[in-house]
Design goal:
Helix content is about 40%, strand content about 15%. It is α+β, with helices and mostly antiparallel strands and about 260 residues long. The chain is flat.
């Protein structure tokens, strides 16, 4: 049974800003063959409690660390489709956090670099690679018109439009503990009113350094390439020659048997 929740993303964000980030997992009895396994995992987790046959785990951001993330994911994989299972951020019910917690596991392993673009050449100003804010390998490939009004080489940022983009893109990852502490609305509010689209870093201090790949030449060692190519050819011809030799021996053998 797949559950969907229609809570506006800003309701959750406002709650996080006001009260911090608290995550709660609950599940009750189930006919699933994995029920006993789920109970065993839950009982070993910190902050576990049992109230009237409801198994409860409650965590703040810092309490979900690399020591328990694997066990939490294992538990959630077992229970996330059960009718008795519920997930909450600050008592607001949300969908299961499998994608978010897997993403958070990457952050726990690699640190902030995981939260930026996987190619390692472009991050984003609010610290989540799924935000869709200023995404692109080169500034000239960024679709600046998505973020404001473009006039010649200047983009006049529309911060409400940027917030809406962030809401829409980050909504699916709102259960990520790290996202709960980023305070990305404040980061958006602190953006300048206008940006030089050819050199955004001149206006946005934390805009990532972007290598100028246009100045890098891709050099091919032609001699090495030809040598490898000839080796590959010789391997092909060698295999063909071996096959022909074996086939000839087989025909000779059959010929003498028939004599």
């Amino acid at each position: 049974m797949n559950k969907t929740y229609e809570h506006p993303i800003n309701e959750i964000i406002n709650s996080i800003q006001a009260d911090g980030w608290t995550y709660k997992i609950e599940f009750g009895k189930s006919r699933s063959k994995y029920y006993k396994d789920a109970v065993e995992i839950a009982e070993q987790l910190p902050n576990y409690s049992l109230r009237k046959d409801i198994h409860i785990m409650k965590y703040t951001i810092n309490e979900i660390d690399k020591n328990i993330i694997e066990d939490l994911l294992n538990l959630i994989e077992h229970i996330h489709n059960w009718k008795s299972c519920h997930f909450y951020i600050n008592n607001i019910e949300v969908g299961h956090p499998i994608a978010e917690f897997n993403c958070y596991k990457g952050f726990l392993k690699e640190g902030n670099s995981y939260c930026f673009d996987s190619r390692g050449v472009l991050g984003n100003v609010i610290g989540c690679k799924w935000s869709g804010i200023f995404d692109g390998v080169f500034p000239k490939y960024i679709q600046w018109e998505k973020f404001g009004e473009v006039n010649d080489e200047t983009c006049y940022l529309d911060k409400q439009k940027i917030k809406n983009i962030a809401y829409n893109n980050i909504g699916a990852y709102i259960s990520c503990p790290h996202l709960g502490e980023l305070d990305f609305l404040e980061k958006i509010n602190n953006l300048p009113t206008q940006v030089n689209i050819k050199n955004p870093k001149s206006d946005i201090d934390n805009f990532p350094e972007i290598p100028d790949f246009s100045k890098k030449e891709v050099k091919i060692d032609e001699n090495n390439y030809i040598e490898k190519k000839n080796k590959n050819k010789s391997r092909s011809y060698g295999c063909l020659g071996t096959f022909v030799l074996l086939l000839t021996i087989l025909f000779i053998f059959i010929f003498f048997i028939l004599l």
